[in-house]
Design goal:
alpha/beta, Rossmann fold, 2 domains, 6 helices, 4 strands
């Protein structure tokens, strides 16, 4: 009797393992696009020579450092707009007095942009965490004005429905950039 139970559990475990492995392969196939060709640079593949990034906070640009680096390597002009100084950020570890955090983070984003070769940078002074309270029309108008100056072929920003992390500031800037 004990031997039958061991065989039964062994077979059930094997079937479960095979189903799990099959499920992993099936899920991976959902995200494959066999016809898609890898590209060294999104900006280069699209023929874009002027790129503009639009983000809510200092350090958001870290999400696209590779895109910026590749675009710059292909000779693209890159401009960056950051809507807040990031003064409400959580510090882990603590690097500055909280009241000075916006100044520290603004310096960090400008330094990072310089290291990446970004041609033009703007850090606006909207309240960190308060972008949903800023009238959308005001953000759209200000971004449209920046876009008319920088004349981008490609605008890189957050997807408005999720903001990548669900952060309301990210979502608001994605929406405003799309409308601008």
């Amino acid at each position: 009797m004990r031997g039958i139970m061991i065989w039964t559990f062994g077979i059930a475990g094997g079937v479960l393992l095979l189903a799990l492995i099959g499920g992993v392969f099936w899920v991976n196939r959902l995200f494959e696009a066999p016809e898609a060709e890898p590209v060294a640079s999104l900006a280069g593949a699209l023929g874009d020579s002027r790129v503009m990034t639009v983000f809510a906070h200092p350090d958001d640009e870290q999400l696209v450092n590779g895109l910026i680096t590749a675009a710059k390597a292909e000779g693209a002009y890159v401009a960056q707009v950051t809507a807040t100084r990031g003064e409400a950020g959580t510090q882990v570890p603590v690097v500055a007095r909280q009241r000075d955090l916006g100044t520290v983070r603004m310096a960090e984003v400008l330094k990072n942009g310089f290291a990446l070769g970004i041609d033009e940078q703007e850090v606006w002074d909207y309240p960190d965490g308060g972008l949903p309270d800023v009238p959308l029309e005001a953000l759209v108008a200000r971004l449209a004005e920046a876009m008319s100056r920088y004349r981008p072929d490609l605008v890189v920003t957050f997807w408005p429905a999720s903001g990548a992390t669900g952060h309301k500031d990210h979502m608001r800037m994605g929406l405003a950039a799309g409308q601008a």
